[in-house]
Predict the structure.
Amino acid sequence: VNGGLLLGAAVLGLLLGGVYGLMASGLALTFGVMRVINVGHSAFVICGAYLSYELFVRLHVDPFLGLLITMPLMFIIGVILEVIFLQHLKEDREQFSVLITWAFALGAEGVLGYFFGTQLVQISVSYGNASFAIGGVQIVYIYLYGFLFGALLMGLLALLLHRTTFGAALRATVLNRQAAQLIGIDVARVTAIAFGIAAAMAAAGGALYGMLSTFNPGSWYDLIGDLLIIIVLGGFTSIRGAFLSSLIVIMFQEVLSVMISPTWSDLSFFLLLAIVLIVRPNGFFGIRAREA
Amino acid sequence: MQAYTVWADNVNASGGLLGHKVEMRFVNDASSTSQVVTNYTTLISHDHVNFVFGPFSSLLTIPASEVAARYGYAFVEPSGGSEAVFNRGLTNVFEAEPQAGFQDMLTFGDWLLSLPKSERPKTAAYATEDDPFLAPEVAALQTKLQNAGIKTVYHSVYPIELPSYAPIALAVAKSKAQVVVLGANLPDSTAFVQTFIQQHYNPKAIVSAAGPDQGAQWVKAVGANNTAGIAVPLGWLPTSNTFGNKNFISSYIKKYGGTASTMTVDSGEAYSVGQVLQQAINYTHSLSNKTIIAALHKLTFKTVQGNFSFNKKGIPNGHVFLGQWVHGSLQVVYPPSLAKTKGLYPKPVWGTKGS
């Protein structure tokens, strides 16, 4: 395997990892704040992809610009779903949330299938195939934009979490939901907003995913496994962990794809998961949450 | 489903099957091999349908046809073409295509080797899904090209669940192979082409098992100016002067809109299933599956994909075409007797329609 190929695969993996990190961050946020395993999160990603696709095809709105519409819209949808279906879960939140969010995903797939059918589509922007060369490696603009945009949104989310009163309330809820309630934090409000933010992040991830891959209403099945593995490696609740682990995991996988074989890269993904869980059960960046 | 419906509409408009109105019943298998068994069992044993049509893909055809065999039903199907479909000792399975799927890609080899020896490519790269049906198609073509002196410079089998196909496409590009053979479907063949464009890699020829045959879906995904020279084995084409093709296309467009060029090969394959069954019923004047199965083994059928009969395993004995995108449309380039153009070789550079 020549060095140029390895370097090219590593760069591709790094940039694509940024996009996956963005998609996974919402999942980590939801689990951290709400103890909700949102297996429907990838369906939110696909909803976001379709919203961006529609804006692009019908109104010629660039997918990045379209996020000004799709992110608030998905935020509202997320808040409504949380208030109606999840807020009332008092016990066994992890278990019941899997069933409820699975229903979200199936519902979303059904609705999208009704309107769009099962044909594969892609957001084919004019700059989709443009690239430039650095040191013999072709850098594809759209991957670079995806990575930078993902990093920017993650940065903004970090600011929200660490520099605002709402962020402090949210972090307190992550650490101990009942204690947060006892010190006067409106946990119901915090969790609804957090779920909305996660849905909005999924919309952003969806726009990028839709530019990089073909998709249809059933594509959420392909995504959810990867996203769950990424947040497990990242430490379940850590948003920074989700982002960094996605960079590591996707880059690792892409490099192994060209170095050994794509089949081995897929297997190594799970091998990496097993090793990390044995050595660091809380993932790369996990903290042990204090339960009341 | 749409082409099956169009077939039923056309049959009913001309008086039905032996005077009976055709009513179609569709059930969703969600691409699940267990669901497909439940579906066909219900259709036959509970709904008591007269006939069943096959699903798409060999994966679903195998379990579904076994249910049909258990009940003595004929099983005419549109695209289950792997060797495994025909090697189970069943006598009720018939693939309504000119040639069985596992032989499809050889037509690309025939076309390539029909070029003057001095122009033929010297190297080839192969990448295929880890799929029990696609991988053997690619392997058969690889053997053919290697035997003709075309050296393999890259070969990879990849799982379909990868988050990105770009690294494999990158490896193909770095191999600088003159010919690229993809055992791919629409999502991965699209991703390969996009990566080749991004890497400024222009092989002399590209063939994909599927994807380029998906009409507007394919063109939208790769861009109208990037289709030129990409080849795909074809069973059906809207421009073919085959039996009932004009009527099929006009009925389809009338019902579902679009144009002939946006129709997929799948639709032609599905319509052929109906044509085959209809001719067997009309010939035998019977609705008995046992009688129909006997007729299916005996007759030659005229379909929108051309004429063919079946051997004792249900394998069709016709020939698929090699389609290639030329001047913005998918055209037959092989065999010469059916080709309207010689085809593009070498493939034009990305961004040109091949004029």
Observations:
- The radius of gyration of chain A is 19 Å.
- Chain A has eleven helices and two strands.
- The first strand of chain A starts at residue 131 and ends at 134.
- Residues 1 and 259 of chain A are 6 Å apart (CA to CA).
